[in-house]
Amino acid sequence: MPGPGRAPGASLAPRRPFRDGREKRGLCDPEELSVLAERVGELAAAEARRLVHGAAGLLRGGEQGVLEAIERAAQQAGARIGLAALAGVIDWAGRDTPTQAPCPGQGHGARLVTRRARTVRTLLGALQLSRGYYHCATCREGFAPLDLVLDVAGTSLSPGLSRACALAGAEMPYEKSRQFIATVTGLDLASTSTLARTTRAQGRRARVLIGAEHTTAARATATPAPAPGEGPDVCYIVLDGTGAPMLPSETTGRPGKDGGRAGTREVKIGCFFTQSGRDPATGEPVQDPDSATYISTFEPAATFATHAKAEYHRRGFDHIRQPIVLGDGAKWIWNIADTHFTHATQIVDYFHAREHLADLTKLLTLVLDDPGAFEADLVDQLDLGHTAAIAAAVDRLDLSDHAPDLARPAATEVAYFTTNHHRMQYADFRANGYYIGSGPVEAACNTIVKQRAKRAGMHWTIHGLDPVLALRTLHQSKRDDLLWPTTTSPTPQT
Q1: What is the dihedral of CA 319, 320, 322, 326, to 10 degrees?
Q2: 3-state secondary structure of 488
Q3: What is the pLDDT of residues 187-240, one digit of tens each?
Q4: Which of 88, 137, 155, 336 is close enough to 305 for a disulfide, judged by CB 3.0 to 4.6 Å?
C-alpha cells in the first residue's frame, strides 16, 4: 500500500519570500491557513482513497495477517497526514520574523540574523523546520523564538517523542524500548543510544523539579490547612531501602555482607499515604485511593531525611492529626523518625518482627523440647506487645550454662524486641485501626527499583540509574504532570 508522492514532513503551506522586518509582531496572514487546510484535506483524501483500495485488495487476496497489514497502513497514512499538517502550520508560524525579539534570558532586544533550518524528530516522523534566528548582543547568545515555543531548544526530539522515549526507557532495557516504540508506532523514531540519552536527560530534569518542589515545601512557613472535619485523619511515612546492582567502580571501598566488596548500593525509598477509615466489614485499615506518593535516592540517610520531611510538608501531612512512621527496624529509619517526626507514632513492621521470632526459634532449636510450641507462644506475646515476656522466655533457657555459644546471638535477637518495645504494641495499633505492615514501601522497592534495575546481568552506575529511578518514582506517584504538564488539545474550528 504505497504512500503519497509528497515526502513526509514536506510543508504544504504556500511559500512567501523571507521578511526582513515587520512593524508589528504577529503570525503571517491567517488566510494562508485556509489554503493550508485545503491542501492537507486533499492529501488526507488521497491517503484515504489509497488506504481503502489497498485494504480491499489485501482482503481479496485472502492471506492471513491481513488485518495487521491494514492497521499498519492506516497508522502510517495517519502519520503522514498529521506530519504534513504539523509541518505546514509550523512553517506558517516560522515565517513570522520581526526585526527584533526579546531574548529569553533578560528580555533584551535581540536582532534578527537569518532564517535557519533544522530537523526535529516527532512521534509522526522527522520534521523540517525553518525559523528566524536572533542574536542578543548583551547576552552574547543566539536563539530561535519558535524553538522555545515548540519546546525543542537544545534537543532534536519533540516533547512528545522525548516523553515516549523516557517512559519506555524507564520501564524496559533501552534496546527493548526502541523495539517497542517501533512496533507500536510503525516508525523507526529513535536509536537505542538516543533513547538512553533522552531517558537520562528527562530523569535528571525530574530530579531538578522534585528538588525544587522540596526546597519550596521546606521553606514554606505553613501549608494551607483543610477545613475542620475534612481530609484524612491518619497519614503514613513508610521507609525502607533496597540494593541496586552496581559496577565495581561504584562500590570501591564498600564492604559487602560477606566481608568482600559490596556488589550493590542502597536506594532509600519513602512511601507517603493517608487513611480516612476502616473496612466496615473487617475493621481493617483502608488506604485512601490514589493517596500514595514516593521518594527515592542514593543519598545517605541524612539527605534522605530532608527529602522525607519536605515531602511530608508538600503533602500537607503537618495538618493531619495522627502521623505514623513504619519501618523494618533499621536504625537509620528510627533516627529519622526521632529527629524529623517527633510527634509520630513509630511502628516496626509486624512481619519483620515475626521473621525475627522465627530466626530466634531456629537459633534455639537444639535446646528446645518443642520449637513449634515455643515459637507459637512467642507470637502470642508479640501480638500483645509483651516484649519483656519474649526476653523472659529466653532467659528461662539459661543459655549461659546449657549452650553458651548461643547466648550472644540470642541476646542480639532479644534486644531487637526489647529496644523496639514501644514500636511493637500491636494490640493497641490494631485497636486504633492502624497499618502494622510496611508492605506499601516493600512493593515500591520492587516496582521502582527491582523490576527495572535488577534484571539478569544488569550492573549500573549511579549516574545511569538514578535518572531512571527518578522517572519511575514520579510515574509510580502518578505525578508525570510535574515533568510533562498536561496541555489543552487544539480546538477544532470550521
Answers
A1: -100
A2: coil
A3: 899 999 999 999 999 999 999 999 999 999 988 766 666 666 677 999 999 999
A4: 336
